Amino acid sequence: MSTVSPPTDPESDPRIKAVFDDIRTTRQTDTINALWHYLAFDTAVLEETWRDVKGLMATETTLDFKTKEMLYIAVSISNNCDYCVHSHTAAARARGMTDAEHGELLRIVALASKTNALANAIKPPVDAVFDKERTA
Amino acid sequence: MSTVSPPTDPESDPRIKAVFDDIRTTRQTDTINALWHYLAFDTAVLEETWRDVKGLMATETTLDFKTKEMLYIAVSISNNCDYCVHSHTAAARARGMTDAEHGELLRIVALASKTNALANAIKPPVDAVFDKERTA
Amino acid sequence: MSTVSPPTDPESDPRIKAVFDDIRTTRQTDTINALWHYLAFDTAVLEETWRDVKGLMATETTLDFKTKEMLYIAVSISNNCDYCVHSHTAAARARGMTDAEHGELLRIVALASKTNALANAIKPPVDAVFDKERTA
Amino acid sequence: MSTVSPPTDPESDPRIKAVFDDIRTTRQTDTINALWHYLAFDTAVLEETWRDVKGLMATETTLDFKTKEMLYIAVSISNNCDYCVHSHTAAARARGMTDAEHGELLRIVALASKTNALANAIKPPVDAVFDKERTA
Amino acid sequence: MSTVSPPTDPESDPRIKAVFDDIRTTRQTDTINALWHYLAFDTAVLEETWRDVKGLMATETTLDFKTKEMLYIAVSISNNCDYCVHSHTAAARARGMTDAEHGELLRIVALASKTNALANAIKPPVDAVFDKERTA
Amino acid sequence: MSTVSPPTDPESDPRIKAVFDDIRTTRQTDTINALWHYLAFDTAVLEETWRDVKGLMATETTLDFKTKEMLYIAVSISNNCDYCVHSHTAAARARGMTDAEHGELLRIVALASKTNALANAIKPPVDAVFDKERTA
Fold first, then answer.
1. I need a surface site. Which of B18, C125, D79, E61 has the fewest CB within 10 A?
2. How far apart are CA E103 and CA C77, in angstroms?
3. What is the widest separation between alpha-carbon atoms in chain C?
């Protein structure tokens, strides 16, 4: 059950069709995942979101595609986004993430969540040596 | 201001000394960061936390050290752990993270936080194609 | 699947009946949503929650009803409360929220989540000009 | 203490200068808040963030400016972004938010946080009547 | 730096004075902590918050005072509320929490944060045996 | 729908069998809950998680078993871990948590979530009297 309704005939709207066409071309697939259908309830949201995702996750940048998807998963777990954990886990696998890497990613997320809780509970002073401005 | 007091003479306790010695040896430094001094308020917490951090973050595993630290930063930002963001940003730089990689990491955390919010707001159905059990 | 059981015959308890009657009168409806049935597992929780919700969300106050529901949605998305996002999206629509306003609300939640993550990652110093006590 | 260093002479970079000039023009002020100085550590992050903030928060859209800033505050409190709570509280005041409205905003954030916790603890079934797709 | 200004002469307002008097009587102290001074920026917020805190945390109920404060700390760490972690850690100590209990509390918060992250990452099906409604 | 696949014949792996045997012995039950089946996708994650859970939650320590489970629930609600709220609510009941105690636990989580939001919104200065280091 969703909080918005996807348009029943999305590609009759040329702005939506342009985004969907670009998704198909960029990803070399005929499948438009559910998120994009639902984001199309508001054309501006659809266009902006796809522009951002395409520019960072579907474009050659400094980090490799697999690392970028693994970072995306780490954030999505921490924010507890059900849809995003599923979609980016699938994407990371498509970018070459092995089961061993996936297991290690989850171990890091688990350990960081643990030490984050400890540090937020204790609130130790931040060491001056960590300061970028001092060390730069 | 912290919620626990670090021991005034921590290394007079042989269990604390053993952990601090191992930190110095493993990290090849004389510095024991504040977190470890404060965790020493409870020896069991100190021992367990160092065992976990050493086993994953200071040991050769599947993922390289820099990627592991960047994943740790991504989680720490999402959990808003002030100390951890600082300490693991410093650690990632020590492992070779460049300013360009740092900038890209922050762009991914920012974008994921945005689409996490959108997906959690809309709650689209999760596409069957993402299912590991189906696709395995 | 829920973690508590709603009473099987809630209105046989006069305190529960009083709350349910007040919900029906205040909202001018015969429907008691599931949340209230489940909160009735503990009469004190039910009474307090309804008292708070009625006093703020079902009473004329400074902000108009639609704005109050939209603020409620923004918090509920950020806290990732599935039930609350659904119930308050329905309530906001009943108070007059249009699809365009809903789309814009989601854009704001998405943008704020993005810049929240950036600021929490970077931790810039807070500008003195923002200080209420200085500017008051 | 921040995790990145702002450029020492930011406006010597024409891309940064263009953003800073646009901030000054759009906001009709000479002040560039700290966030923008720090975001300038990575030009792409700076440009994207300003483009998004300007397009939604500094542009006439469906919702009025004050309501948009109040929604931004609600999200920023829930995500516990120190900088953002301060900057958008100042912005909302500049857009006309009164102390009474501010107090009411905080009451809504507090109440929503409470009922979000209760609903996430109990997990009642979501009422079919909330379903946009059924009711549309 | 705070987002609201506490009243300069709070007890000149009889509603604020009534709350402050009740805090002093209930807690048997002359000290009014900063939170209450700042909440007094909006009398309704002050009254409601004190009524709720007094009714649950300063009143004999089913759970003992120390356990209630420790539960409060656990939530406050998870929500990363700096002020609340400090104030309720002090309160728990005043209610008899020992250093060993504090250490164990932090170990539980740390472990739960870790397994919460793992379960949210993996999303295993919830076992039917956990269902209150089946087992009741 | 889960993001990893549990092994189809887990106990053919002697490391997994050792953990499952220990779970059955420690908990005096034949049932291995779903979480453990899914964690077995990565043997190291399974072993570490069970070691940690057994050492703290299934071992006599300073706090009693019921209190430990209630603290675990409080964190799991705040982190919105669906599986964990269910499993630890069942565990707390098995350790003797009554319906009245469960109701009171939820009232504390709800109240803390509310005051956490208020304090994070207002950011009052932390009273010096809360300082462990001063008062120790």
1. C125
2. 33
3. 58
Residue in this structure with the two tokens 């198909």, named with its chain if needed: A24
pTM of the model: 0.96
Cβ–Cβ of B3/F132 closer than 8 Å?
A: yes
Nearest to F133 among B2, B126, B132 (CB): B2
Spell out which residues of chain C touch residue B112, defining contact as CB-CB under 8 Å. 117
At D122, give phi and psi (nearest 5°): -95, -35
On whether residue C77 sits in a domain, the answer given is yes
Out of D1, D52, D133, closest to residue A126 by CB: D1
Contact A111, B42 (CB under 8 A): no
Mean pLDDT of all residues belonging to chain B: 95
Q: Quick check: B88 pLDDT over 70?
A: yes
Residues of B in contact with E99 (CB under 8 A): 41-42
Question: How do the pLDDT tens digits run along chain E, 136 residues long?
Answer: 899 999 999 999 999 999 999 999 999 999 999 999 999 999 999 999 999 999 999 999 999 999 999 999 999 999 999 999 999 999 999 999 999 999 999 999 999 999 999 999 999 999 998 876 555 4
* Pairwise CB contact (< 8 Å): C103 & A1: no
The CA distance from D44 to D40, in Å, is 8
Interface contact flag, A107 F80, Cβ < 8 Å: no
| D67 and D98 part of one domain | yes
Residues C79, C48 share a domain: no
Contact between C107 and A45 using a beta-carbon 8 Å cutoff: yes
Collect all residues of chain C within an 8 Å Cβ-Cβ radius of residue A80: 80
Q: Are residues D45 and D83 in the same domain?
A: no
D60's CB contacts (< 8 A; 6+ apart) are none
Contacts of A52-61 spanning 24+ positions with Cβ under 8 A: A52/B111, A52/B114, A52/B115, A52/D48, A53/B111, A53/B115, A54/A22, A54/A26, A56/B104, A56/B107, A56/B108, A56/B111, A57/A91, A57/B108, A57/B111, A58/A26, A58/A27, A61/B104
- From A84, A89, A30, A82, select the one nearest B133 (Cα to Cα): A89
Helix pair B43-57, B14-27: axis angle to 10 deg: 20
Report residue F132's pLDDT band, with 50, 70 and 90 as the boundaries. Answer: low
Q: How far is A74 from chain C (nearest CA, A)?
A: 14
Query: What residue of A is the nearest CA neighbor of E74?
Result: A121
Chain E residue numbers with beta carbons less than 8 Å from the beta carbon of D110 are 45, 49
The nearest CA of chain C is from the CA of A45 a distance in Å of 7
E75 and E52, same domain (yes or no): no
Q: What CATH number is attached to the domain comprising E24?
A: 1.20.1290.10
Virtual torsion, Cα A109, A110, A112, A113, nearest 10 deg: 110
Residues from C in contact with E at Cβ < 8 Å: 1-5, 48, 52, 126, 130-133, 136
* Of residues D107, D111, D69, the one with CA closest to residue D87: D69
Q: Indicate the angle between helix axes E99-122 and A99-122, nearest 10 degrees.
A: 150
Provide the number of CB pairs (under 8 Å) joining chain B to chain D. Answer: 25
Report the alpha-carbon distance of residue B14 to residue B4 in Å, rounded: 20
Whether C55 and C70 share a structural domain: no
Q: Collapsing DSSP states into helix, strand and coil, what is residue A64?
A: coil
Q: At what angle do helices A43-57 and C99-122 cross, to 10 degrees?
A: 30
Question: Which residues in chain A are closer than 8 Å to D41, comparing Cβ atoms?
Answer: none
Query: Is residue A42 domain-shared with residue A90, that is, in the same domain?
Result: no
What's the domain range around B43?
Answer: 11-59
3-state secondary structure of D11: helix
In a domain, residue A127? The reply is: no
Inter-chain residue contact E113 with A109, CB threshold 8 Å: no
ipTM, interface predicted TM-score of the complex? 0.95
Q: What is the dihedral of CA C89, C90, C95, C96, to 10 degrees?
A: 80
